Amino acid sequence: MDFNSKKLSDQFDKAVSFISGSNLSDVDTQLKLYGFYKQAIEGTCTQPKPPIYDLKGRKKWYAWSEMGSMSKEEAMTSYINLVKTINPNIETEKTGWVTVSTFAHDEIPLSENEKTISDWVKEGDLNKIKTFIGDINVHDCMGMAPIPWGSDWGDLKILGILVENHLGDVNLQDNTGQTALHFAVFCSHEEICKYLVSMGARINIQDEEGFSALEKCLDEKLKSLLSMN
């Protein structure tokens, strides 16, 4: 690596370090940085476009794909110049050694209009969940429905709203065949397990690997409790 290339690489690492430690909220700028970053690290985008329901994935794919055949050096320079508009003093600030990760810019937030009830469950937004109108027994872009998410997070209040107010199916399986009870036993959420069973959750539904929630339960006390049902 010649001197100029080494200097550019060092400046790029410093800019990445700054962004990784910042609280940048502007989505358009995040997407531009993501596109430049991926182009600089991996080159031209050759990945297939994510499915239409994967809104985050499609935003990131377009941001990277729009770089076209831009060289890695050009992408690094564009990234640095964009960071300078956020922090003009980036070149004079001292930073420690940075390990550049391809995941450094993966979290592109959704707007409120793009969020689903699964997002509200993960955020614990009770008001949005209570007033939701629609079918909650549908899978999100990660192949999970709201009830398994609520079970995974261990929030009994949210789970109660999903099951009793919105008539959620406690035995609905995700894209790997797991139910809300699988997630509850894996996380040792005893109260969640009790509630799900009381609402009709079946302990012997098998996932794609052939294991039931009971078989995946590592907590002996919880396993004994489930075996009684």
Share of β-strand residues: under 5%
**Architecture of the largest domain, according to CATH?**
Alpha Horseshoe
Give the CATH class of the largest domain: Mainly Alpha
Provide the CATH topology of the largest domain: Serine Threonine Protein Phosphatase 5, Tetratricopeptide repeat
* Overall geometry: elongated
Q: Which class do the helix and strand fractions yield?
A: mainly alpha
Q: What order do the helices and strands follow?
A: HHHHHHHHHHHH
Cα(first) to Cα(last) distance is 67 Å
Level of helix content?
A: 40-55%
How many beta-strand runs?
Answer: 0
Query: Compute the gyration radius: what is it?
Result: 23 Å
The count of domains is: 2
Low-confidence stretches: 92-106
Most strands sheet: none
Number of helices: 12
Residue-averaged pLDDT, rounded?
83
CATH superfamily of the largest domain: Ankyrin repeat-containing domain
Would you kindly provide a brief summary of this structure?
It holds the Pfam family Ank_2. By secondary structure, the chain is mainly α.
Describe the protein's architecture and organization.
The protein is mainly α. The protein has two domains: 3-86, Up-down Bundle (Acyl-CoA Binding Protein); 117-227, Serine Threonine Protein Phosphatase 5, Tetratricopeptide repeat (Alpha Horseshoe), CATH 1.25.40. It contains twelve helices and no strands. The chain has helices spanning 3-20, 27-42, 55-65, 72-86, 117-123, 126-130, 146-153, 156-165, 180-186, 190-198, 213-216, 220-227.
